[in-house]
Amino acid sequence: MELLTYPNKTLRSPCQLVESVTPQIRADLSLMMEKMDAWDGIGLAAPQCGISLRMFVMHLPGEGRYAFINPEIEILNDDTSSMEEGCLSLPGALILVTRPATVKIKALNYNGKVVNHIYTGIASACVQHETDHLSGILIIDKVESYSRRRALQNVWDHEHPTKG
Ligand SMILES: [Zn+2]
Fold this sequence. Notes:
Elements: H1 23-38, E1 43-45, E2 55-59, E3 65-75, E4 80-86, E5 94-100, E6 103-108, E7 114-119, H2 121-133, H3 145-159
Antiparallel strand pairs: 1-2, 2-3, 3-6, 4-5, 6-7
Zinc ion (ZN) binds next to helix 2.
């Protein structure tokens, strides 16, 4: 399982629904959890690993590791929250992203059971960021062109560091 980075085309393709939570799906999710920790991420979406399916994993500091399959996000009020977000697929980029502050997420969990969670703060930003990945949306799409250019310059600098 490899980490795909911008501008890999798989990151831009809408993902397919997971039809059933098979042992293969669970094996992919387990490996994604391992990789998420190894790559120091708090979230990792399947398309970032080359799997074009609607699922992601999350591991917030001090919490367990959770899988979300076929997530649906509902915005619960008009409040917004702005947070600096990074993305494993955009190494070196940090972008201030404004999102709905409180969301409800409905999904299947690792065992294929329906779960509902209400999230605020970093968990809310994380589930929205990862669900965006499943539609081919990246954080560079969330900002105006100047910030986007600067963020991509950082990605470029990160991948081609000036030595000396
Ligand atoms: Zn990301």
